[in-house]
Amino acid sequence: MIFCFSGTGNSRYIARRFAEALQEPLTDLNAKIRTCDTSPIQTGHDVILIVPTYAWRIPRVVSDWLIKTEFASAERIWFVMDCGSEIGNAAKYNRHLAEQKNLQYMGTAQIVMPENYIALFATPEAEEAGEIVQKAQPDVEAAIASVQAGREFPAPRNNMEYRIMSGIINPFFYRLIVKADPFRVSGACVGCGQCASKCPLNNIELRSGKPVWGKQCTHCMACISYCPAKAIEYGKRSVGKPRYRFEELED
């Protein structure tokens, strides 16, 4: 069984590729997490988890869900992480998570996809994003081939910098950076509610037709990226940056 969590579509695209190639069911973790559904799941022997990289590890909301959810009959797990540049030392923590689930760890694959973290980094225009996606195709195909053959993914590169990123910076990132407070909405908002419907943590509600953010934010960037009016900003950091969501590349 394939599990996918996605903010702006990169992981969802990769997960669809895996599902088509492996003829395996695809489970949307956004919906599971949104509804706090941690009921046991009949997964079959193999589990493939496909997620974005948040501060050089898998999203905390995903690891929390995994720990709470029983995987009936599961034996092996592969981790696939897309990122804007690198995944750091995420493999170490994925291995620990597999051990907690009593699953055989089959490795972590890194796939570089277009950057979506508009709160801190530059996001690409559509043409550049399309080029990045095309460049990622061999890595997607190689990861699929490894799973088809029942092979472990090759061990990703690891060094002191990566260990600092995933081990030291990650906790500070969640403590200091992952906040919804800087989100704001301009007069261009049409009150469509797209931001609230896309939020995987039910952290947005409409009041008088305008979005209001709560305290349970995971910084998936779905709200700002899917706003059809481009009415949402993240403080001053997002001003003037293109909004990235994978589906625009398929339009």
Automatic annotation (TrEMBL):
PROSITE patterns named in the record: 4FE4S_FER_1, 4FE4S_FER_2
Pfam families reported in the protein's UniProt record: Fer4_9
Keyword Metal-binding: yes
Cofactor(s) needed: [4Fe-4S] cluster
InterPro entries: 4Fe4S_Fe-S-bd (IPR017896), 4Fe4S_Fe_S_CS (IPR017900), EFR1-like (IPR047964), Flavoprotein-like_sf (IPR029039), PSI_iron-sulfur_center (IPR050157)
Residue intervals of the 4Fe-4S ferredoxin-type domain: 180-209, 215-237
Protein name, as recorded: Ferredoxin
Top-level division of the source organism's lineage: Bacteria
Main function: Ferredoxins are iron-sulfur proteins that transfer electrons in a wide variety of metabolic reactions.
Keywords recorded for this protein, A-Z: 4Fe-4S, Iron, Iron-sulfur, Metal-binding
Keyword hit for Iron-sulfur: yes
Molecular function, one GO term: metal ion binding
